[in-house]
Amino acid sequence: MTKPKKDSPKEENLAQLEQQVADLTNALQRERADAINMRRRHEEDLAGLRVRVKANVVRELLPAIDNLERALNHTPKELEDNPYVKGVEAVVKQFAKSLSDIGVKRIETVGQPFDPRYHEAVSVEEGEGSQEIVSEELQSGYKIDEEVIRHAMVRVKT
Question: Which whole number is the average pLDDT over 49-53?
């Protein structure tokens, strides 16, 4: 019988080196994938932080905007063309444009189906319908994308 031929030391060394290269290549690929995933998570976290910061700033401004709108809604008829009232209207429009520019949207209310994700019902009136519909907006609601900054306070009619 013949003895099985043993690999020469050079062939064994070559096989070991090839295995090391394969192991290092796999490790490098894993590290690259981890780095890409970490970068992606960081970017997502940063985007979420930006939205939260915007939402917090808007929450602080909403009472002032609400008060300006209330003042305009109670303007006597004889003062509607007054330059002061026109100036307040311009400020309210400027607020609305600034909010829109940073991605804040007013939640649609009157005539829309009641949606507890966006609306807070203050009262419910019986009607002839089978679906709950928003009949009146008592306070505006706002959102950035699908994140609600403030729910709209509404009256609902069924």
Answer: 92
